Amino acid sequence: MVRGWAEIGERSFRILLIVVLAIAAETRFLGLADRSLWFDEAYSVSVTHGSFLQLVWSVRLFDTHPPLYYALLKGWTLLFGSGEIAVRSLSAVFGVLMVPLLYGFARRMADREVALAAAALLAGSASGCIRFSGCWPLDPGPRCGSPSRPIEGRSKRGVEQR
């Protein structure tokens, strides 16, 4: 006889949730230091140097985004430094935290099996919408483009380069 989702006990289900969180952490933290900082990441780090007032002023003058991310990154870099792993890990932590948040939201809308499936899909997703710096670590090579790194042979506007 095949056991269905309904027959899985509470303890086994919690173990599955922990496995989903471990997968989320692996897909987001694997390869954080494989590449040096890209322009947008280096810009974010440069904004965090100086006082909090300078940060707010700089973002107000030169950026269209609100300063919350930069303020969080400033505190994060004060604690962990401004290397590749330290800078990228803030976004990776938020990416991992999205998984239980999605589970909780889906659990309110549907049963626990649907919520677990949604969380598992998000946890295993290493796509560009989750990965804050393009396609790595599953990067197949220079053809994998992102807004901050265009596809080889094309400019950011998609025009052929010679």
UniProtKB/TrEMBL annotation:
Keywords, ordered alphabetically: Cell membrane, Glycosyltransferase, Membrane, Transferase, Transmembrane, Transmembrane helix
Highest taxon listed in the record's lineage: Bacteria
The keyword Amino-acid biosynthesis is annotated on this UniProt entry: no
GO process terms (BP): lipopolysaccharide biosynthetic process
Listed name of the protein: Phospholipid carrier-dependent glycosyltransferase
Bilayer topology: Multi-pass membrane protein
Compositional bias ranges of the Basic and acidic residues kind: 151-162
Molecular function GO labels: pentosyltransferase activity
Transmembrane spans: 12-31, 85-106
Domain called Glycosyltransferase RgtA/B/C/D-like: residue spans: 65-125
Positions of region (Disordered): 143-162
Localization (cell): Cell membrane
Cellular component aspect of the GO annotation: plasma membrane
